[in-house]
Amino acid sequence: MNSGIIRKAIVAVAVSLSIATLATSISATSVAAQSVNAKSASLPQLGESGPEVTRMQQAIVARGFTIKGGIDGSFGPATQVALKSLQKVAGFAATGNLDAKTAKFLGLVDVAPLSKSNFPTVGASGDAVWSLQQALINNGVQVKGGADGKFGLATSIALGKFQSLKGLAVTKTVDESTAIALGLLAAPVQKASAKKTVAAASAPVIAPVVAVAPSTITIDSLPVRGQKSDNVRALQNALINAGIEVKGGADGVFGVATSVSIGKFQSATGLNVSTVLDAPTAAALGLIPSLAELGLPTLQAFPVQGRCGFTDTWGAARGAGRSHEGTDIIGARGLALYAAMDGTISKMTTGGILGGTSLRLTAADGTYFYYAHLEAFAANLANGQVVRAGQIVGYLGSTGDTNTPHLHFEVHPKGGAAVNPYPILKAVDACNVTELLPQP
Question: Which of 414, 317, 360 is nearest to 94 (CA)?
């Protein structure tokens, strides 16, 4: 038998035994029971329903993929379609089945307890590092790049954020207190003493471990000026952990001080200094996954001149049993349409039954963008022409199977199946920019 398969089987058994041992210890010491995030149920399969399916669906949606019909706890065809899209983007075999590799990518695999004598350190790699990273994510702290099993700068930063949130010493390394707070190490049991007064004076007091609530910040719910909430506090803590002072501290109130601090962070990291929490800034702060973490392309230009608007309609029902595989950006007829990236016009169509006047723009890596319902192409645009990001390629219209002027915009990473373009568009949303972009 293949030695790699044997080794993985042994590791899997060892992890299961370790988790069982830890569970026994925790049941005897109720203090740490609240912090365990491990799940031991088998991976859900097509046709099943229940809380594990709900957990899987939540993980899929959190990574930018829409499940037609929403999160309903039932593993049906709609969930399978979304799972296939995620697997394709992540570079896995797009089977639509929840295999171990996909489950680990989604954070659905059990984390294993750490050994007190062998905490992972910077430069280490392997299952212990993966468990550490996944425990951080389970406790609401993003690890840039996800749980990849490699202890680098992103893991150190995430550890520092967690330690700050828990009131621990910010060492950015794994120590006993941090491992206990993460649920990766059982809290020590205090021994009874005949001299209770002496014991009370000398024994350390171990506070109950309370898991950090997962962040509810999404690309659609980024905190804005004037809000007061836990999400604002999470933003402020992220700024502080990044070395940016927030005057007044993390008080959960989004006022002038928070806006100023956002501007300082944006300036320090080379982002557009808007002093508002936009998607690129939120991703840089680790508050939401970046497009790179999701395996999605980053647009160099928003494809429509403002004013316009769009919502997430990925997977919505369309005629003849079809589902929507793009985002509709609605605006006035005649608005300029821009090349979203540097690339080549690889297809131009007129008179299409569904898309009407449409074009395909292909980037260097094979990723292509489909523009449909154009009123007209830009003057002198030709098939095979090389265009630059921001260059006008056409004008918004309502040709084909629609009566409402809008751009139907699709994204096909590396030439594969379409993925939900909404988070990709939201990251560079410029629907408020009404002036034409300078043309090459």
Answer: 414
Shortest CA distance to 234 belongs to which of 213, 255, 248?
Answer: 213
DSSP state of 122: T
**For the chain, first and last CA: distance in Å?**
61
Task: Give 285-313 as a 3 state SS string.
Answer: CCCCCCCCCCCCCCCCCCCECCCEECCCC
Maximum distance among all Cα pairs of the chain, rounded to whole angstroms: 93
Contacts of 368 (CB under 8 A, 6+ apart): 343, 346, 360, 361, 362, 412, 415
CATH topology of domain 308-426: Glucose Permease (Domain IIA) (2.70.70)
- Kindly state the helix (H) or strand (E) to which residue 409 belongs, with its residue range: strand 406-412
Return the exposure string of 399-412: e unless at least 16 CB atoms fall within 10 Å of the residue's CB, then b. bbebeebbbbbbbb
What one-character DSSP code corresponds to residue 325?
A: -
Q: What are 315's strand-pairing partners?
A: none
- Cis peptide bond prior to 63, omega within 30° of 0: no
Q: How far apart are CA 368 and CA 301, in angstroms?
A: 14
pLDDT digits 0-9 by tens, 125-173: 888 888 888 888 777 677 777 777 888 888 888 888 888 878 888 888 9
Composition of the chain by helix, strand, coil, percent to 5: 35, 15, 55
Residues 6+ apart with CB under 8 A from 318: 324
Contact 381, 336 (CB under 8 A): no
Beta partners for residue 304, in sequence order:
337
Name residue, tokens 């669906």: 57
Do the Cβ atoms of 68 and 95 come closer than 8 Å? no
CA distance 437 to 440: 9
**Spatial distance between the Cα atoms of 189 and 94, rounded to a whole number of angstroms:** 47
Three-state DSSP state, 159: helix
pTM: 0.53
Is the alpha carbon torsion for 91, 96, 102, 105 positive or negative? positive
Q: Which residues pair with 348 in a beta bridge?
A: 359
Q: Nearest 5°: phi and psi at 247?
A: -60, 125
- How confident is the model over 380-390, as pLDDT tens digits? 999 999 999 99
Domain boundaries, the chain: 230-284, 308-426
